[in-house]
Specification:
Elements (H helix, E strand, L loop, with lengths): L2 H4 L9 H16 L2 H26 L3 H4 L4 H28 L3 H6 L4 H31 L8 H28 L6 H4 L22 H4 L3 H15 L4 H32 L8
Helix pairs in contact: 2-7, 3-5, 3-7, 5-7, 5-8, 5-11, 7-8, 8-11, 8-12, 11-12
Length: about 280
């Protein structure tokens, strides 16, 4: 790596060195705290175990579940991907708020869009650490291998992760605008889309007037696609393409809102007033 890159020079639009430095900063925070590492994997494991037993019960009492063993466990794991994707962005951002470090970050050569890339990258790391143990343990515990979904699993995972980033960036913008009094948004906002995403049931279960709202969410296409693979053994490319198109729109929108909020906070001096 050149001296220019090491110095964080501003020659390019993006400095991978600065983005990598931010990722390392967040990684060191996690690595030095076993409770943080434990928390990342704890809830996905509890969810997987709980829904594993529920699935075993329904498999003997429901023909719909019996036709696709693991459809509920798979839904739980993918839902956790969305949740971890959102919380991965929000918590990394909150780390800066809690430590009153935002002002210091933005008097450094770090650019706002590089900060966004670092938050997204760290969200990916947090999500993998969180959901991977549950995905692996489901194999011996319930004989359900989510990796048997094959290539479609990558598409489902990526779409839910990107949707999580979008929600996380919007939540972070709200926290930056309204202060730490709004930090609880990071933990509960994502659950507003859960009933509409068809995690455990088809979208057609929803009332007619609510279905258009559900189809405006990328997650709805992902969970419908997952059921298509597990129950009908077919990958619906139309559902996948719709999820990608919506995600492109939402991630651009969320990034613009977050970057504008950062710009406004710097202009108004709000970065110096953030903290617990």
């Amino acid at each position: 790596m050149t001296d220019h890159a090491h110095s964080g020079g501003s020659g390019g639009w993006i400095s991978l060195y600065r983005v990598g430095t931010m990722i390392l900063r967040y990684w060191y925070i996690i690595r030095r705290s076993w409770p943080r590492l434990f928390e990342l994997a704890y809830w996905p494991l509890v969810q997987m175990i709980l829904w594993g037993f529920i699935s075993q019960f329904f498999a003997t009492h429901s023909s719909w579940v019996a036709t696709a063993a693991g459809v509920l466990i798979g839904a739980v794991m993918l839902w956790d991907t969305l949740f971890r994707g959102e919380i991965g962005v929000s918590v990394s951002f909150l780390e800066e708020m809690w430590s009153r470090n935002l002002a210091q970050l933005f008097v450094s050569p770090l650019r706002a869009h590089e900060f966004v890339l670092a938050l997204m990258a760290m969200s990916t790391v947090r999500t993998i650490i969180g959901v991977a143990p549950a995905m692996v343990l489901a194999i011996p515990l319930y004989e359900f291998n989510i990796f048997s979904l094959g290539v479609p699993l990558i598409g489902f995972f990526a779409n839910l992760l990107v949707m999580g980033w979008s929600v996380g960036l919007l939540v972070s913008a709200l926290i930056l605008r309204w202060g730490l009094g709004a930090e609880s948004l990071a933990w509960f906002v994502i659950f507003a889309v859960a009933p509409l995403s068809g995690i455990y049931y088809p979208i057609s279960t929803l009332p007619d007037w609510l279905e258009p709202v559900a189809w405006a969410l990328p997650s709805s296409y992902v969970f419908e696609g997952m059921r298509g693979v597990l129950i009908e053994h077919r990958f619906d490319f139309g559902l996948f393409a719709s999820a990608v198109a919506l995600n492109v729109f939402y991630i651009v929108l969320a990034s613009v809102v977050f970057l504008y909020t950062i710009h406004a906070a710097r202009r108004e001096g709000l970065l110096l007033q953030q903290g617990e």
